[in-house]
Amino acid sequence: MHKLVVLYPPPADPAHFRRYYETEHLPLVREMPNLLSYRYSFDIGAAQGESPYFAIFEADFEDADAMDHALTSPQGQAALADVPNYASGGSVAIDYPVASTVDGPQRGT
């Protein structure tokens, strides 16, 4: 599995960001080919202090090639071109292969 994570610093207008993101941007994202699943949140905390981020988005793809195809597709290009319409604070995108996963709760030792 390959993961794309987008971190969003605080925007100038948080209400606009939320509204636009959910009603306009995510429908574009859902159209991208090869997208296995996605998640997002506007409730970003930090282990210590205040989080430098307002929102987070995570998308799962089978592998890096599937993600690259999604992002370079017409649907992916439309989603990428849409980011300035809501993310006045910019965004930070990272991607990585998922090395391992854990199924179910972990038991203490």
TrEMBL record:
Domain EthD: residue ranges: 10-88
InterPro entries from the UniProt entry: Dimeric_a/b-barrel (IPR011008), EthD_dom (IPR009799)
MF terms (GO), sorted A to Z: oxidoreductase activity
PANTHER family named among the record's database cross-references: BLR8190 PROTEIN (PTHR40260)
Protein name: Uncharacterized protein (TIGR02118 family)
Species name: Herbihabitans rhizosphaerae
